[in-house]
Design goal:
The complex is a heterodimer of chains A (293) and B (318). Chain A is mostly helical. Chain A has two domains: 53 residues, no CATH class; 212 residues, MetI-like (MetI-like fold). In chain A, 71% of the residues lie in helices and 0% in strands. In chain A, helix 5 packs across helix 7. The longest helix of chain A is centred in the middle third of the chain and has 32 residues. Chain B is mostly helical and 318 residues long. Chain B has two domains: 57 residues, no CATH class; 240 residues, MetI-like fold. A two-stranded antiparallel ribbon of chain B has the order 1-2. In chain B, strand 1 and strand 2 form a beta hairpin. The two termini of chain B are 44 Å apart. The N terminus of chain B is likely disordered. The chains are: A mainly alpha (293), B mainly alpha (318). The interface between A and B is large, with 103 and 109 residues.
């Protein structure tokens, strides 16, 4: 309490303060830790409830216990009879296809804008920055009209294109930052040693940019995996639905198939939460166009 | 090569070739950027920009309820839209939705970022837990809350009953999503919940850019923790705060799954925002829905302009 003295003497104050700082931390640290764990648990609770409900036997669904009396895996086995496997495949195709397309398109664009000061570079980056703020929901009618007029053989192709287009900005931005941070001299040195330009790219630059590439890959995949409003608009038959729409479809007009709904949600969510943990620290830089990092 | 060319021919021949080469090189120099960034421009053009054009075009067209094109509509879709009795309430609700959700999200995120910036054992694991609502599909998170709010056996109601806040199951009090105002508040809670991880991480990144020396200097000068927070942390956090808030404004404004999964915007349009209203209109009135989209898009553009100013994009680009 020495610090409460109104006018501490010049020599006394720092000593008292240093002592205070040294003696309190363990308690303070403990308090912070407890608070943070509490917050962490609150953030996980809804997903725990998801798992619990998925494993609740159907005849216990209306019980009010926090956990079921019997744990039951049957929702996870019977869900495959509802066509869930097809929906899973659609989601994998859409998310995988969109990720591949984004990589094919974003890698060269990001590399070139990082290495060359060509005319129109600023304009291109502005386009990327602006489209990053565009979301499909704001132009859904346009997307619907355009892609219906394309008459593609399957909505999977439309969904791959849409997801790739709306997730491109993030990848260009984060890859551009990574490529810019790798000195061009490294590539040139390799080329002096007789490696071709592409060889230098493959052997020097891409491995160094790997954290950025992995971040872009995972982020695009999850974005496409979780996309809902466009998929809801462009698909019309259950076998065309990706997981988000399929799970929405367990909500019927009069009743909801909660058991299958949450079993499906567990299968669709847990892998992406784990995937996201790998890139957790790097996403903000790409989303805020680097203005924060 | 030189050996095979007649001596006299060398200068003229090579000059012609050089000229050809320089034209080719100039062409190539102009085309090279297109080779690298062309695919990106094409993808953005087809998927992001073309729908904007289609949306504007559709907003001036007339369709039958099952989607047959009936010709030009002039401004009728817009006048129809503005004549909608519910539009005023929907607009007010949308503003409320964005302001309240983003406001509370940012306030809580300030505290959470501060907390998770402290050093304590197990910080990494605790931070991982934070990302769950960010990585999980919002559709599924919203459905979890819908289930947890079930009037008869939802876990939130069970909890409220156990602590004495809920009198009886199945009552109208327990039917949160059946009452428009209560439903809207709960949907705001879900929107805040799913917006917190990104905002917290953005502010955490901002906190890490503040040099520790500043706090040491403040401590030497005898500033209290609160004073240091107000005079150092808050002002230096301003850029990240602003950018995170703007991105949240866009996300929350465009947010569709939360309201769709919990109430479908109903009863009627009583829990709809403009984004949900656009979707409801789309089922039968695609022209009017496009008109609503045009309004939504205009709002997005305004936020984008503020965002560009806030990120100082010119500095970013150079």
């Amino acid at each position: 309490m020495t610090t409460l003295v109104a006018e501490p003497s010049l020599t006394g104050a720092p000593v008292a303060r240093v002592r205070r700082v040294r003696s309190v931390p363990t308690g303070k640290k403990l308090l912070f830790a407890v608070l943070a764990y509490l917050v962490a648990i609150i953030f996980l609770l809804p997903y725990a409830e998801m798992v619990i409900t998925a494993m609740r036997p159907n005849n216990e669904l209306l019980d009010r216990g926090y956990v079921p009396q019997h744990w039951d895996w049957s929702n996870f086995t019977s869900i495959w009879k509802t066509g869930f496997g097809t929906n899973l495949k659609v989601s994998l195709a859409v998310a995988g296809g969109a990720t591949l397309l984004v990589m094919l398109v974003a890698l060269p664009a990001a590399y070139y804008t990082a290495r060359s000061r060509f005319r129109g570079r600023g304009l291109f980056l502005l386009l990327v920055l602006v489209t990053q703020m565009f979301q499909p929901a704001a132009m859904l009618v346009g997307i619907q009209r355009e892609f219906l007029s394309f008459n593609l053989p399957s909505p999977v192709f439309s969904l791959i294109l849409v997801n790739a287009g709306f997730n491109l900005a993030f990848s260009v931005w984060i890859l551009n930052a990574y490529f810019s941070s790798i000195p061009a001299e490294l590539e040139e040195a390799a080329m002096v040693d007789g490696t071709s330009r592409l060889g230098a790219l493959a052997r020097i630059t891409l491995p160094l940019a790997l954290p950025g590439i992995v971040t872009a890959l995972i982020f695009t995949f999850i974005g496409a995996w979780n996309e809902f409003i466009v998929a809801l608009t462009l698909t019309s038959a259950p076998q065309q639905y990706p997981l988000t729409v399929a799970i929405n479809n367990y909500v019927g007009q009069y009743s909801v198939d909660w058991g299958h709904l949450f079993a499906g949600s567990v299968i669709a969510t847990i892998p992406v939460i784990i995937l996201f943990a790998f890139i957790e620290g790097k996403v903000v830089g790409g989303l805020t166009a680097g203005s924060i990092k | 090569m030189v050996d095979t060319v007649p001596v006299t021919g060398v200068p003229r021949e090579s000059a012609r070739r050089a000229r050809q080469r320089s034209v080719g090189r100039r062409l190539r120099r102009a085309a090279t950027p297109l080779l690298w960034i062309g695919p990106a421009i094409a993808l953005v053009g087809v998927v992001v920009l073309w729908p904007v054009y289609e949306m504007f075009r559709t907003s001036f067209q007339r369709f039958s309820p099952n989607g047959f094109f009936l010709g030009s509509a002039g401004w009728r879709n817009f006048t129809d839209l503005f004549a909608e009795a519910d539009l005023r309430d929907i607009l007010v609700r949308t503003v409320l939705w964005v302001v309240v959700v983003v406001g509370i999200t940012m306030l809580i995120s300030l505290a959470l970022a501060q907390l998770f910036n402290e050093r304590f054992p197990g910080r990494r694991v605790a931070r991982w837990a934070l990302i769950a609502p960010w990585a999980a599909s919002v559709v599924m998170t919203s459905l979890i809350f819908r289930w947890a709010l079930d009037p008869n056996s939802g876990v939130i109601n069970v909890l409220l009953h156990d602590v004495g806040l809920l009198k009886s199951y199945g009552s109208s009090q327990a039917d949160w999503l059946g009452r428009p105002n209560a439903a809207f508040v709960w949907m705001m809670v879900v929107a805040i919940f799913v917006s917190l991880p990104f905002s917290t991480y953005a502010l955490l990144a901002g906190l890490q850019t503040i040099p520790v020396e500043l706090y040491e200097a403040a401590r030497v000068d005898g500033a209290s923790t609160w004073r240091a927070y107000r005079s150092i942390t808050l002002p230096l956090l301003r850029p990240s705060f602003l950018v995170a808030a703007l991105i949240n404004v866009i996300n929350v404004f465009n947010s569709f799954p939360i309201i769709w999964e919990m109430t479908r915007g109903g009863p009627g349009h009583e829990t709809s925002t403009t984004t949900v209203f656009m979707f409801q209109l789309k089922q039968a009135y695609i022209g009017e829905s496009a008109a609503m989209s045009v309004l939504n898009f205009a709002l997005v553009i305004i936020v984008v302009l503020v965002f560009l100013k806030a990120t100082r994009w010119r500095e970013q680009v150079s």
